[in-house]
Design goal:
about 350 residues; alpha+beta; Serine Threonine Protein Phosphatase 5, Tetratricopeptide repeat; 4 domains; 5-stranded antiparallel sheet
């Protein structure tokens, strides 16, 4: 096993983004600790299902992998969000930074203790001790929310994180309030203002626009959702989104080309042709997005030809920090994935046009 004292530190040096070094060092110090449900590990291996910009550092009892999200939209804002990756491939941001993630976990632990009638001073003593050693004794203050379970409970934690730290996509999706559709729309729009690349938020907003009698706004939100990386939602949710798009299309509302292709059933051969065309037109950002979607479709981010082509594109775009992350995984050849490709009904040479672009 890789030495956990060097893994993230060495990776941070290779990535060469100054603003990430502090957070990588913090995650390194959390190695072997647990805080509520998550267990932190500094040397979790990169797997086939992990997007190239995802750096794993922990796991939960529900088989979610927790990691840092070095997506280009986040890096452009000098942010390092924490994201959760489910077994089904759902990737969603759970905190705007590692520091906020720790605040969230501690607040949730305290809320559970209050609900159960326990004394957080006793039940959280061990966690507060080691957190204090790493981040200082004043990092988290017990009792700041009071002790009334009707006022402070697990249902109010997400709202507190939103109001105090700005919140993540998951915080906005999980906030529980009895509201009108208009109130929920305002809440989701606030979430999108700081989490613009979340398919889940755009999709939920589309449903509420439709429910609130705003079909044109729903159509735009559907297009915005499908412009996000597809692995930010489970397939069942995408099916629901497609159905809403189909219903609105049947009612005469005009869909974007992207949505129309989704409804028509985008064939792999056509998608590959479109990726090649985007590459030749030097539309590298859109090309990278569609290649990333394709990785999710074929259930692997480790297929050598796509990996090599993406590295080529990332260099064109100046997204050089992604190259070291891609080198962390063992690359697979076509024969390694033949069975998976066959299950997807892909022809033997489906990727030939993509391989022809590799220099």
């Amino acid at each position: 096993m890789t030495d956990p004292s060097n893994t993230l530190k060495g990776l941070a040096e290779q990535i060469d983004l100054p603003f990430v070094s502090h957070d990588f060092a913090l995650i390194d110090r959390l190695h072997g600790k647990s805080l509520g449900d998550p267990w932190f590990e500094a040397d979790i291996p990169f797997t086939l299902s992990m997007p190239h910009f995802f750096v794993p550092f922990g796991a939960t009892s529900s088989s979610e992998t927790i990691g840092l999200c070095l997506h280009p939209t986040a890096v452009a804002q000098k942010k390092l969000p924490v994201a959760s990756l489910s077994e089904e491939g759902q990737l969603i941001e759970v905190a705007p930074s590692p520091i906020v993630y720790l605040h969230y976990l501690l607040t949730e632990m305290e809320a559970y203790a209050i609900e159960d009638g326990d004394d957080p001073t006793e039940s959280m003593a061990e966690e507060l001790d080691w957190i204090g050693e790493i981040l200082g004794r004043n990092f988290y203050t017990l009792g700041q929310h009071g002790h009334d379970p009707d006022v402070f409970n697990t249902d109010t934690v997400d709202r507190y994180i939103i109001d105090t730290f700005g919140g993540s996509a998951r915080n906005f999706l999980r906030t529980r309030r009895k509201q009108t559709a208009a109130d929920i729309i305002e809440h989701l729009e606030r979430g999108i203002a700081t989490n613009s690349s979340s398919l889940a938020l755009h999709a939920k907003l589309a449903y509420y626009y439709h429910q609130n009698g705003q079909p044109e706004a729903a159509v735009q939100s559907i297009a915005n959702a499908l412009s996000c990386d597809r692995h930010t939602q489970k397939w069942d949710d995408l099916k629901k989104l497609r159905q809403l798009a189909a219903d609105l299309s049947n009612q005469g509302y005009e869909m974007s080309d992207r949505v129309a292709r989704e409804l028509a059933g985008d064939k792999m051969e056509e998608r590959v042709k479109r990726i090649v065309s985007l590459y030749r037109d030097e539309a590298f950002d859109r090309c990278a997005k569609q290649l990333d979607d394709l990785c999710y479709e074929v259930c692997t981010y480790s297929y050598r030809p796509i990996n090599e082509l993406l590295q080529q594109i990332y260099r064109h775009l100046g997204w050089n920090w992604l190259i070291p992350l891609m080198s962390q995984r063992e690359l697979l050849e076509k024969n390694d994935l033949a069975r998976d490709f066959a299950r997807k009904n892909l022809s033997p040479d489906w990727d030939l046009p993509l391989r022809a672009l590799i220099k």
